[in-house]
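Morning, I've got a small favour to ask if you have a moment. It would help a lot if you went through both lines with me. Thanks so much in advance, here it is.

***
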Amino acid sequence: MYTKYSLEEIKENLKSCLSEERYLHSIGTMEMAMELAKSFNCDVDKAQIAGLLHDCAKCLSKEELEKSKLEFEECEKLSAKTWHAPVGAYIAKHNYGVVDEEILSAIRWHTIGKRNMSDFEKIIFIADKIEHRTREFEFREKIEKVLNETHNLDKTMLKSFKITIKSLLKRELPICKQTVDVYNDLLEKIST
C-alpha cells in the first residue's frame, strides 16, 4: 500500500479540491501512467497513485502555494505555474500519507523535469502530457508518435521538451535552466 487512503477516498477528495477539468486530467494521467507502467515493466499500482495525485496542488492560488514555504528551484521562481509540483509532492506526503519516495519524486519533477530521472519518473512526466481525457490531440499526437515508433522513454521525453521549449519561446516566456539542462542531457544520451 502506497498511501493510507483508498483510491476511492483519494478520488473523492480530489473532486472537492480540483476543477472538473483538472480532475478529469488527473484521472486521464492515472490511466495513461498505468498503461505506460505495464508497457515499461514498472509498478502499476505506484503509477496509479502518482498519476492520480500529480496535480493535487494545481488548483491552489499563487498565495496558497506561497504559504507552503517550500524550497523551489531557482528557475521555478520564474513562473508560479510550476509551483504546484513541489507543493503537490508535499501534499501527497502529508495529506494523503504517501511515503514512497519514487512516487513523491515523480510528482515533484513532473513539470520541469530533472537530470537522471528514473523510468518511473519519466512515465509520470509523459503520462501527464499524453493523457487522452483533456489533452488536445494535436499536442499529444506528436509525443505519442515518437513513443509508439521508438518505445523509448528518453526519445519521448526529448520530443515533449522540444514542444514545450518551442511553445515557451513562441509566447516569450522564461525557460527554466534546469529544463534546458535536462533537454541537453537527453539529446546527448540519445546521440551517443
Notes: Residues 7-191 form a domain with the Hypothetical protein af1432 fold (CATH 1.10.3210.10).
